[in-house]
Sequence to fold (127 residues):
Amino acid sequence: QVQLVESGGGLEQPGGSLRLSCAASGFTFSNYFMSWFRQAPGKEREFVAAISISVLDTYYADSVKGRFAISRDNAKNTVYLQMNNLKPEDSAVYYCAAGPASRVSGSYSMPYKYNKWGQGTQVSVST
Fold:
C-alpha cells in the first residue's frame, strides 16, 4: 500500500522554525522525485520545494528561497522540509508529493506530474 505521511506541522510565531517530515512506503522511494507543495485557503496548490533522486539537485519557489531547505534520506524513505524565518504568508496545508523521476524531471513545479500525495499537515504562522 502506497503511503506518504506528513508530520511536523503546527503553530509557530513569525521568525520561528519548523521541520516537516514525510515518511514514504509502498514504492521504491529512491526512484522518485520528491516535492513539497502547499495550499492556503482559497488559493491554488503551489510548489514549494523539490529534490531529485540524486539528492544533489534541489529546487525552490522564489518565495521560500534562502529560508527553506529540502532534503531526503533514501535509507529512511523520508523527505524533510526545514522551514526557517517563517512568515504569516507561509501558513498553509503542506503536502508531500512523489513522482517518477522520468516523469517529473524538468517539470518539478507542476502538481500533475506527481502521482502520489500525502494527506497534508497544517502550518500556521501567527503571533
Remarks:
- The two ends are 40 Å apart (CA to CA).
- The chain has a mean pLDDT of 96.
- The first helix runs from residue 101 to 104.
- The chain has one helix and eleven strands.
